[in-house]
Design goal:
52 residues; 2 helices; 0% strand
Amino acid sequence: MKEANGGWPAESTTQLEKLSKAELIELVRLYSKLFLAVDAFWYLAVKEIVDE
């Protein structure tokens, strides 16, 4: 059965709850940049495979 917190360890969600609104906003901005970087790497990897 999946936990009520989405399967995340309890420590992780507790840590997020302790962050201020400004810290959460900064975290979301950081994660969005990381997501774009991962997306770019994925695109380049697929492009390299398709172009072969």
